[in-house]
Fold:
Amino acid sequence: MVRTRYAPDRGLQARMGLTMFLLGLVFVALVTALVFVLLAFKVGAGAIIFFAVILGGVLTFGSLFWSDKIALRASGAQEVSPAEAPQLHGVVDRLCALADMPKPRVAIARTDMPNAFATGRNSKNAVLCVTTGLMRRLDEKELEGVIAHEMSHVAHKDVVVMTVASFVGIIAALLVRFAFYGELFGGGGRGRGGNNNNGGALPILLIVMAIGVVVYAISFLLIRLLSRYRELAADRAGALLTGQPSALASALTKVSGAMSAIPTRDLRQAQALNAFYFAPALKSDTVSLSTIFSTHPSLERRLRQLSEISAQLGR
Amino acid sequence: MGFLDTLLGRTKPVQPNLDALFSLPTAAVTLQASMGFTPTGNGSVCFRVAEGRAFHDIEAEVRQLLAMGPDAGPVEVTGDSYGFTWLVSRHKSDDVESLVTDLHAVNTSLAEGGFGPQLLCTLVGFTDSSGRKLGIIYLYKRGTFYPFAPLNGEHRDNALELEVRGNLGADLKTEPDLTRWFPVWGAPGL
Structure:
């Protein structure tokens, strides 16, 4: 009985696993291609690849290690004590006790955009942030649903998973950029004494750049796909934690409705943080292509899953 | 959570630990002997209502069960401002055992119905001759107890709480992580 009611979504897990496997495959392919290029030409490009990997690693590690501080700074949120926001802390306390999780720090961002995010490299350094706009629009049950969703992100270590996943893309993007500047100022690998007599038709940096572009494009799509699956998983875990999938669904419809009404100047400022947010602050187009570039699943998809969970709980 | 759970983004709902509740009567004796706190005879179970018929059926069943017992006191059901439900059971102040049995019956019914993860905490009220209030709170998911001593105006008597922890350490498994001692202001049964 327990099993059927809180059953995990095997299909979602399989798709998520496959996405991560493909990302790993892209990474391996990237490394193989680069090693191959280096061996084939024996010259140049080595330094560029080396720097791209080192800088990519530093960037990834940095954004992971300081994710809580970066996100708080970028959103202008401020940490609040239990005395300042007793109701909010009370909700978080109770959810932590239900889920047997350490309590994250709680922050409030003073903006009318209704949103929430959770970040931090592990549950001990996690910060949970809600905006004043969210608290104003949602009632207690809905707010609890949103916070449960964010705490599931913390429990699933989504910041770590997504940062590590984006490592491939970061390296590829850096490679493209470095190779481009190398081509511009250094003249590529062709001129080195003319010793690559058979493959000399293509400058080595152009090949590296092409590899970078292809890998970046593929990994970009895979990361977005992974992000959408993680959102669905957090929706699911959050709804099961509170036992109130419909409250979360109602919060989603309210937030999505309000999202489209916000002026564009605010939206542009919000862009950088989108992946960590509860609902993206950008208007979603009705064009079907836009869904594969999006960090969050469509509202319909999320509502469908929540109503399935609701049916499961009532059985 | 294991590595694979993290990787696949799945959470197993935490099942409650129910049996530790039965160490409460011994602790009540210790509390009376060492600090002069006597049980008020009131206790409550706090849980999160899940939506759907299944949960409401079980909830109704639990209320009937409590009302039918041989030495049943009145059962009250109250909601708090966080959307949690409290079932309050009232007994004579010297009868902690029946109180604990009642509370345990609520837990088992919910857990057997498949809603164990919905249980938040259980609370047993104590008071001393000078009128100070104290709640011993059991966290189902941790399997640990902690004291909660409210003062007027949403303040808590931390000194008293720590003193209680010191006295109860041998009888109860107290929660070592102080950040998990969350306040339950105005909890029914306190």
In short: Confidence is low (pLDDT under 50) at residues 188-201, 260-268, 282-287 of chain A. The longest strand of chain A covers residues 105-109.
